Amino acid sequence: MQGLGRGFGLLVWLLSPSYRLQFNRNADLAQLSLRSRWQAVMNTGAMVAELPWVWCRPLSDDILKYVDWVGAEHIQAVFEKGKGVIILSPHLGCWEIGAQILAARFGPLKGPMVALYRPPRKKWLLPLFEYARAREHLQTVPTTASGVREILRTLKRGGMTALLPDQVPPLGQGVWVNFLNQPAYTMTLAMKLAHQTQATVLMGWCERLPGGRFRGHFCPMQAYLQKNNSNAPSDHSDHSAGAGFDVTQATQAMNQAMEQMILANASQYLWGYDRFKKPREGVLSQTSSQVSKQVTKQVTKQESEQGSKQAFKDRH
After folding, report:
1. Model confidence over 161-216: pLDDT tens digits?
2. What is the pTM of this model?
3. Quick one: which of 39, 98, 114 has its CA closest to 66?
4. Which residues, listed in sequence order, are joined to residue 218 by a DSSP beta bridge?
5. Extents of the domains making up the chain
6. 120-135 as b/e, with b when 16 or more CB fall inside 10 Å?
7. Residue 28 and residue 124: Cα distance in Å, rounded?
8. Which residues, in sequence order, are CB contacts of 259 under 8 Å at separation 6+?
9. 270 vs 306: CA distance, rounded Å
10. I need a surface site. Which of 243, 281, 301, 304 has the fewest CB within 10 A?
11. How many Cβ atoms sit within 10 Å of the Cβ of residue 183?
């Protein structure tokens, strides 16, 4: 299927002037070689061709038998500290399978991995999307305030979530920061979640290998920032209350790390994605900061009540 998909990718690139223009505009910003461009075109076709298998394979089929791992120890190390994990995985490689392999490997240990999910606009596709995401240890939540609350709770109890950091967010849920030296409207949710929950941010992507196999890559965000000589903190979970957290600066650091990861693996990035488009109108009734504050109050109240009960028991 992947081989046929590569041919399909070339055909679409040749027959669609608008796609070719969008692809080359982004590839020019990254100064991609001709070889890398052709590889990326074919890999985009392979991505489309493998989606039916990724989405529709039997629920009993163990995804882990198709996957190699690089850097899984970073995830395990965070869990051993009792902290939550935020995986930032852009449109690189087979991102659709990334959530499935993380859920299959770490879900039995830490509970379901929670991911935001926006239902398709075409209702007839809804059953397919629901089946595709109905995987053991994988929980999808809507892109609403209630969905963000569930992710916050998951991270606070030491669980995991994954986000697409290069997906253009709705208006009011991002900031304009540079990506490939161009202003790009970028989500602030990831860095706000890390700041609010003290979760650790890791970069991740799922490489497409020959023979229908995949390789999951995971690395601390700081490792990519150091390559870019950034002075960002070693862990974007260390912003305690009142520590002068700057969401724009943190989001720019996220883009820098993402850019480094993408350029190092440019032949598997989705260069046809309209990364620099204007944001659409928002769908969340509340900002992530407002939701975050509400959940924090709830958690603080619960902790206070538990402390009071324990103090009462100690006195009596």
Report:
1. 999 999 999 999 999 999 999 999 999 999 999 999 999 999 999 999 998 899 99
2. 0.85
3. 98
4. 204
5. 63-315
6. eeeeeeeeebeebbeb
7. 37
8. 179, 180, 228
9. 49
10. 281
11. 11
